[in-house]
Design goal:
about 425 residues, Rossmann fold, about 15% strand, alpha/beta, 7-stranded parallel β-sheet, 6-stranded parallel β-sheet, 2 domains
Length: about 425
């Protein structure tokens, strides 16, 4: 196993003292708020350290022609991610199908792991239990790679933000490089105003990276694509100076260097370096997966974010399941239990709530020979993570008629762009109408 210099997270996720010094001066400090962001920090650390899989590894085969080391099928087996129709997953790392003693895959890459360069990951934990559960499991993976993880219950009460920011002030001042996963996060924007680091790296937070790069290039304020309204409400006006300062921090100039580490098709503004995320760490660490004969559907949180009408979405899911013979539905971590109950009981799909980002679940397997998704990050990332496995990824367009009347006017154009720029995903037409569920 990789060297375990991790001190900040216990088995149950409780924070342990780091000592008075904290991260060393000039070290790298990364801030994440979601499992996908933490996965992409690991990918960035692997690429930054020169990690590059051989052609055999890229195809999912270990040197010598044998399958790359993989874990027992617990998490990947049907029912291992959650019983058929199961709508909840335990949060603890020792839960059935969790990490357990066997770990999640092959041993950490290299004797010193990804933490050799002095990387500390700060998890700004959200409230959502599914997100917290996935973050705990991703933190275990970071441990196996020798990375220091600092778990912050940053939203754990009225005084939590002040306590978190106060505790991070020193590490922020000492850090030589800052890595962030969500430039739209107000929490992250506030932290950026406290750092003196001249090297800033933005890793993928899914398709939002495309919008971030576009807004940075055009000089627009940083506003999420699905947010409705003008962005000039009372809270936005109060926070505007902080957001403006953070935006300046994310703009290269003078000695300040900005890198975007992304698997998305982005056109960087002048001075911004873009490094391709090929999911090399994921391919070298896991798989290849065992393929089933069926088709898997990937859920989306477009209903929960107020973009797509619930009934139209369920009709589309039913039509896709019928047309492509799908039997499993991989739920997004933000999907509501009520909606997933209708997917399971009304449509008859096995609802699976993954305990890790889907790129890792799919790479571990078993996974369907075809994966069908609505416009989302996975139509860009899964073809990279599953390179050489024979899995086909297909994306279904969102029909404009599915959009809610109060959806952001940018929604349709953004979703079309997500679909149209998916280079290695097969494009499907909008799902035909189905019986109302």
């Amino acid at each position: 196993m990789a060297a375990r210099r991790f001190r900040a997270l216990s088995r149950d996720g409780a924070k342990r003292p780091e000592g008075p010094a904290g991260p060393e001066a000039g070290a790298t400090l990364a801030f994440v708020e979601s499992p996908v962001q933490l996965l992409n920090v690991l990918e960035w650390a692997y690429a930054d350290g020169g990690g590059d899989p051989s052609p055999e590894q890229a195809a999912g085969v270990a040197p010598g022609g044998r399958p790359s080391p993989s874990t027992p099928e617990g998490l990947g087996a049907p029912g291992g991610l959650g019983a058929p129709g199961g709508l909840g997953a335990p949060e603890g790392p020792g839960a059935p199908g969790g990490l357990g003693a066997a770990g999640l895959g092959a041993a950490g890459l290299g004797a010193a792991g990804l933490g050799a360069a002095g990387l500390t990951v700060v998890v700004l934990s959200p409230h959502d239990p599914m997100t917290r559960g996935q973050l705990r499991r991703m933190a275990e993976l970071a441990r196996d790679e020798g990375i220091t993880v600092r778990w912050e219950d940053a939203r754990g009460g009225a005084g939590a933000p002040l306590k978190t920011i106060g505790g991070l002030r020193g590490p922020l001042r000492r850090a030589g490089r800052i890595v962030i996963g969500d430039p739209f996060s107000r929490y992250v924007q506030l932290l950026l105003t406290l750092t003196r680091a001249q090297d800033l790296v933005v890793v993928d937070d899914g398709t939002a990276t495309m919008e971030f790069v576009s807004q940075l290039a055009s000089g627009e304020p940083l506003v999420r694509w699905h947010r409705r309204g003008t962005g000039r409400g009372a809270r936005e006006m109060v926070f505007a100076p902080v957001s403006a300062t953070a935006r300046r921090r994310l703009t290269p100039g003078g000695d300040r260097r900005v890198e975007v580490f992304s698997s998305m098709p982005v056109e960087p503004p002048a001075g911004v370096t873009v490094t391709a995320n090929s999911f090399a760490w994921t391919r070298a660490r896991f798989g290849p997966p065992r393929l089933t004969r069926g088709t898997d559907l990937v859920g989306t949180s477009l209903v929960e974010t107020g973009v797509v009408d619930l009934e139209r979405y369920l009709e589309a899911v039913a039509a896709l399941a019928r047309t492509h013979g799908a039997t499993r539905y991989f739920a997004h971590r933000r999907e509501s239990a009520e909606k997933l109950h209708r997917v399971a009981a009304g449509i008859g799909l096995e609802v699976v709530r993954p305990e890790l980002p889907l790129e890792l679940i799919a790479r571990r397997g078993p996974i369907g020979h075809t994966i069908v998704s609505f416009p989302s990050t996975v139509v860009h990332t899964l073809p990279l993570a599953l390179a050489g496995t024979g899995v086909k990824v297909a994306v279904c367009d969102v029909d404009p008629a599915w959009l809610r009347s109060d959806a952001s006017p940018r929604a349709q154009g953004f979703l079309s762009g997500v679909t149209g720029t998916a280079r290695d995903a097969h494009r499907l037409r909008s799902a035909p109408a189905a019986t109302r569920i």
